[in-house]
Design a protein that fits this description.
The protein is mainly alpha-helical. The chain has helices at about 5-30, 35-70, 70-80, 85-100, 100-125. It has one domain. Helix 1 packs antiparallel against helix 2 (about 35-70), helix 2 packs antiparallel against helix 5 (about 100-125) and helix 3 packs antiparallel against helix 4.
Length: about 130
Amino acid sequence: MIKSNTKFLRTLFFLIGIVATLAYRMIIFFNLYSPYWVNILWYIGTVGFILYFGHRYNIQKKEAELVEKYKLLKAVEDSKHIKGKQKEALNYIVNSIATSKSRWNSLTIVLLSVLALIMGIILDLGIF
């Protein structure tokens, strides 16, 4: 059975993405007042991006795999029940999922964020 995440999980990851984005934006303001809060906000944003974009990567990968596994492009093309603009729209959506490179963007953000997090911890602990 193909299952999507629960509404709770979808909302949670949405909120994580919003909080991470806001944390990074707030750094500009707090940079004028408190290096301590800049550090806190940076960690919140970085960890949030790892979680959010990791989740997005998994979703995008699963969608592309489903399109491939169930031959959804061919199914849309061969369908006699879907016609006209509806068929064009569905073909566009399925083709976009199959060919999108956005999952690689999400994976790159995750990997670079993990690297930044590790470097941030090392620098904050004074290891280097």
